[in-house]
Amino acid sequence: MDPTDTLDFNAFKVLCESLSGNAVRQLSKTKPVYVFGAGSFGRDVAKALKNSNFNLLGFIETNPRQKYIDNLPIFCWSDIPRTDLSAQLLVGIFNRDVPFDELKAYALKAGFNDIFMPWDIYNLFSGQLGWRYWLSKKDVLLGNVSSLQETYDLLSDDESKRTLLNICQFRLGLNDPYSSFKHQEKQYFNELTLASFTGLKCDYIDCGAYNGDTFLDASFCLDLNEAYLFEPDPVNFLELVRVVNSTKLRATCLPMAVSDRYQILSFSGAGEGGAISENGEAHIAAVSLDQMLPKSTVDFIKFDVEGAEVLALTGAQELIKRSRPVLVLSLYHRPNDLWEIPSLVARYCPNYKFYLRQHFNNSFDSVFYAVPQ
After folding, report:
1. Tell me, what DSSP letter sits at residue 22?
2. Are 226 and 309 in the same domain?
3. Taking 50 as the threshold, does the pLDDT of residue 3 lie above it?
4. Which of 97, 208, 297, 340 has the most crowded CB, counting CB atoms within 10 A?
5. What are 156-189's pLDDT values in tens digits?
6. pLDDT at 69 over 60
């Protein structure tokens, strides 16, 4: 099975069956360990290693900006003696900025061969690392092949089917080159979503409006009539208001999250990564779209709500059924998003076409598109 260009779900199913029951790759406690990357993920990996009594020598960064962090030294590649190149290297970088195949290439070029990627690390330390977007133990994907097939069967074009299988293989550690793949279509507003709006006004909802960037993108692509922009993070919300005030467009900025009902929730993080969290120190109001707009109709809804997409969809089902809008939904915040979001959308959206595209590195910014026919 070619992992980079396949439409054969049966072959993928056979591949998954061959992986089921395979032993998880283990770290050795007799060999020293380095962590490549001293950001938040890398520091949490280092903490898990220390808690488990591994021989952690320190961090490696390509361009270190300090000498120590968390009482551990930070080395550049040239600092590592040749005698240490047999050490285990854990890639402690997990974001969309640099493709994982490039990060692995840095390590191989430096002379390391015993390399653990983020999915290998998560298989070992998931309990200590907690929620990390789409990262999961391999058994989560391998145990939901039938649900993945339901998503596959919903998708309306070959490119979407190919994208689903490539994402799954990448997350299983079998398709490193796909980490650097990005579709050329513009995220959210592209030929999949815009065709039906030619010459028509559009009522638009942005759930997770951040700093107004997607609202501005929408204003360039759509003839906006009403716009409702939801953003719970206080810093982001102030910037959103500033951006809206700099335009002549009609938009209502709402400092709240969207969910399945009205409630007060804990919130943590900032910037693009702010999310609902049981341990969050801030508190925000959340509301369902069905409560907020009980009799309205809308034409386009974007959901990018940091893992709360299923709850947000549940709280918008009557609005969606009544309006039949174009829907665009982030599909990378949780491992289960690959099957739970498409299944829920299909329940609310008969006679729609469904598409999947990847818009950034490392399967971040993968988006599920639902377009009424």
Report:
1. P
2. yes
3. no
4. 208
5. 999 999 999 999 999 999 999 999 999 999 999 9
6. yes
Last residue of a domain, one of 117, 133, 149: 133
Q: Which of 109, 133, 157 is the last residue of a domain?
A: 133
- Residue 154 within a domain: no
Give the model confidence (pLDDT) of 248-270 as tens digits: 888 999 999 999 999 998 766 55
1 assigned to some structural domain: no
Residue in the block written with tokens 């997409």: 309
> Strand, coil or helix: what is 98?
coil
Are residues 222 and 88 part of one domain?
no
CATH classification of the domain holding 104: 3.40.50.720
352 beta partners: 372
Distances in Å between the alpha carbon of 156 and those of 4, 117, 152, 351? 19, 33, 9, 11
Do 280 and 349 sit in the same domain of this protein? yes
Q: Comparing C-alpha atoms, which of 189, 186, 234, 182 is closest to residue 215?
A: 189
Q: Which domain holds residue 63?
A: 33-133
Q: Are 293 and 317 in contact (CB under 8 A)?
A: no
What predicted TM-score, i.e. pTM, was given to this entire model? 0.93
From residue 158, alpha-carbon distances to 141, 145, 155, 299, 355 in Å are: 21, 19, 8, 26, 9
Better-predicted residue by pLDDT, 360 or 275: 360
